Amino acid sequence: MTTTAATTTEPDDSDGSGPESTRFIRRYNRPARWFHSSTYLVVGVLLGTGWWLLRGGEGEPSPLAELLEQPDTDLHRAAGWALASLGAIGLTLGIRAAWTFGRETLRVDRGDGRWFLHWPRGALTGRFAPHRGHFDPGQRLANILFVGTLGTLVVSGLLLTTLHGGSTFALMVKVHRYATYVLTPLVIGHVLIALGLLPGYRGVWRAMHWGGRVPLATARRLWPRASSTSGDRLDPPEQFP
User: Fold this and answer.
1) How many Å apart are CA 51 and CA 58, to the nearest integer?
2) Distances from the Cα of 202 to the Cαs of 189, 196, 205, 241, in angstroms?
């Protein structure tokens, strides 16, 4: 889950402050970056232990279980509670960011269909169709799927810890398993894009790491309207270490 930054500055290359390659947009503030990092660490433990148990490894500890000297079932349960706690924190302490996230995720603009139509070309060349908003249409769809699957995993997992057999328990087992099937390719796709393996997304990982800053040229390629009119802060020219 991601949130938008709070300040606004109009980028302007005419002030002589340097080329776009040496100027940076701060996409996300520190709380948003910590929330994102905490979420993917917890989800990583959930998926790792979950798939280990799903393949029948309950009687054989996973490498993580051996390292932490805890059964995989306990690690999986603890990660589930941690994910539920992160969700509660996001909806209470981070309510303003959560509201912004929801508003930007659920927006629908003219031209979104064209963005999806030209996405394969953009992913390979960086020439994406224009869009409006903090998230591109693909991110909005991914956000909905992530929130839906993670929420389903939390609710079904909590029910599995309280129920002991019966038809509802059996149903929650299936729901939990199918939600895992949906979440896994979402996470893999998210990681592939974040790593910049698709040429059009090179540099995108900086939005959540190293101060949450991306080169202005990268921001304008991926989020043209957001990088010029809303939400993102323009930092002074500098070079990353």
Assistant:
1) 10
2) 14, 4, 8, 18
Strand partners, 235: 24
From the list 89, 99, 80, the residue with the least C-alpha distance to 155 is 80
3-state secondary structure (DSSP) of residue 127: coil
Which residues fall within 8 angstroms of residue 15, CB to CB, at 6 or more apart? none
Q: Residue 9's closest CA among 213, 228, 220?
A: 228
Residue with the two structure tokens 């979402």: 186
Domains of the chain: 13-235 (1.20.950.20)
pTM for the complete prediction?
0.82
CB distance 85 to 192 below 8 Å: no
- Is residue 180 within 8 A of residue 196, CB to CB? The reply is no
Q: 98, 91 in Cβ contact below 8 A?
A: yes
Pick the closest to residue 179 from 144, 148, 143 (CA basis): 148
Q: Give the pLDDT of the chain (241 residues) as one tens digit per residue.
A: 444 443 333 343 433 344 555 688 888 889 999 999 999 999 999 999 999 998 887 778 999 999 999 999 999 999 999 999 999 999 999 999 999 999 999 999 998 999 999 999 999 999 999 998 889 999 999 999 999 999 999 999 999 999 888 999 999 999 999 999 999 999 999 999 998 899 999 888 888 887 788 888 888 889 887 666 444 554 443 333 3
Q: Are 143 and 135 in contact (CB under 8 A)?
A: yes
3-state secondary structure (DSSP) of residue 175: helix
* Residues 61, 75 contacting (CB under 8 angstroms): no
